[in-house]
Specification:
Elements: H1 12-21, E1 25-28, E2 38-42, E3 46-52, H2 61-68, E4 73-76, H3 79-88
Parallel strand pairs: 3-4
Antiparallel strand pairs: 1-2, 2-3
């Protein structure tokens, strides 16, 4: 495994599939160092950065730094979170 490879949360594939089912075009970026798990585009919502976490999983220090710098990162922990986020923005 390369030095920069990170662990993938168990819900990663399921959350990508859920968001795709809600009309998001998704690209997984979890393999990039110091970045978010995925980037998504929705025709009504535009471009969004997604960080997938298991129920109680904390953000990494690099993700906290991105948020502190003003990056608009949406943390999704479940399919219900993905649905609520998409519906809320409609």
């Amino acid at each position: 495994m390369p030095r920069w490879a990170s662990r993938t949360d168990d819900n990663h594939s399921d959350l990508l599939a859920t968001l795709r089912g809600l009309g998001w075009k998704m690209k997984s970026t979890h393999q990039l160092p110091d970045w978010v798990d995925a980037v998504g585009f929705h025709v009504r919502h535009g471009l969004t950065l997604f960080e997938f976490k298991v129920e109680d999983g904390p953000l990494t220090s690099s993700q906290e730094a991105l948020l502190a710098d003003g990056w608009p990162i949406v943390v999704i922990r479940s399919a219900d979170d993905a649905i609520a986020f998409t519906v809320r923005r409609s």
